[in-house]
């Protein structure tokens, strides 16, 4: 190709990128293995499955932690939990002993957020959020022209559409956070279709009562749930997921009807999964990093269906989203990030990279995806080892059969990564600010404050 032809091709390429939009749909609490496109047998996600046909699907996408706040900070900043140190906000499940208003860690201004990068790249930026952990005054509005938190799921969709309608021809970056899947599972009747074969519905009755959620949690923590109880809870969860998928479908239909679908890069992912006693734990959070808690969907629909139908088996993580968008759009980088652009994996020019998930207890367990294996290192240095390709729920510990040199190599990789993260964290002065009464009530309704 001549130099003149190359210049013309490059100009068209830049022009095309300069007319693209971005929508991130964050589905709170979604575990990947309950999605049809990931092989689930129930029809829980028909709209997401249809979108996946036009998209790249990452089979082993990992969240940076097992609950919302640190995972979303990682998504927004492209940094590991041990880099950003945003660990407080879950409040230990209680109001302070002296009766004072609880506080939460702030995503301080020293971070350059994904929304800030997109804004500097010429995008209008809008955040529409149903999640009590992500209020504007804790730093989550950084870089957004419009940031609406405290919404309900139908309002997330409505506010987003109204915002886009008034933008005219300006390209946009939007973050939509949907929460309806979160416990308690108050599944609407028309979505409650996965428990029809059960003769008794005790979990459903408890879920509809004022203190039923706490009773279910109590039973779960004391071996008081039967196999049929768990089956019923999974059915309620799947019904809620079907409802969240309806919301996603509405957003996709809006983009198509508005003529924006082909020019919009759509990313669908989650902040964490949900456990149903696979490892004797129910819900999410606490001190575990098994796949039901941290393996999430990651589906990227590129404009004009570029790369459609690809399935990537190499591990990826939430913090890879920011550098992927930076590379795709040619955005300037102004701060170190922990993630790696996924463009190389998609185009077949890169080898798998290391993936790390951590607990808010920074001295606790670490999950490292390295060398085709998943290692869960205890604080003592002991490890569980899993083959994530054949054992998606981390049920068979292979540690006894792993050669010491392989285990030692993985431990060294982890130690070096954590040392780099610690150096980065020294530059971040994490602060605390009080939550207001409305935020406390929202978090109480979700079980984070008791």
Query: Can you tell me the residue ranges where pLDDT is under 50 for at least 5 consecutive residues?
Result: 1-15, 90-95
Sheet with the most strands? Answer: 8 strands, mixed
CATH architecture grouping: 3-Layer(aba) Sandwich
The counted number of beta strands is: 19
For this structure, what is the CATH class?
Alpha Beta
Helix content: 25-40%
Strand order of the largest sheet: 6-5-7-1-8-12-2-13
Distance between the termini: 67 Å
Give the SSE layout.
Blueprint: H1 3-17, E1 21-27, H2 46-53, E2 56-58, E3 61-62, H3 68-77, H4 81-84, E4 103-106, H5 114-120, E5 124-129, E6 146-148, H6 153-165, E7 172-178, H7 202-207, H8 212-221, H9 227-257, E8 264-269, E9 275-276, E10 282-283, H10 291-294, E11 295-296, E12 298-301, E13 311-312, E14 316-317, H11 321-329, H12 343-347, E15 355-358, E16 366-370, E17 373-377, E18 383-386, H13 404-425, E19 431-434, H14 437-445
Parallel strand pairs: 1-7, 1-8, 2-13, 3-14, 5-6, 5-7
Antiparallel strand pairs: 2-12, 3-11, 4-19, 8-12, 9-10, 15-16, 16-17, 17-18
What does this molecule look like?
The chain is of the alpha/beta class. The chain has a single domain (19-341, 434-445), classed as Alkaline Phosphatase, subunit A. Helices cover 34% and strands 16% of the residues. It has 14 helices and 19 strands. An 8-stranded mixed sheet has the order 6-5-7-1-8-12-2-13, sandwiched between helices. It has a 4-stranded antiparallel sheet with strand order 15-16-17-18, covered by helices on one side. Strand 16 (366-370) and strand 17 (373-377) form a beta hairpin. Helix 2 (46-53) packs across helix 9 (227-257). The N and C termini lie far apart (67 Å).
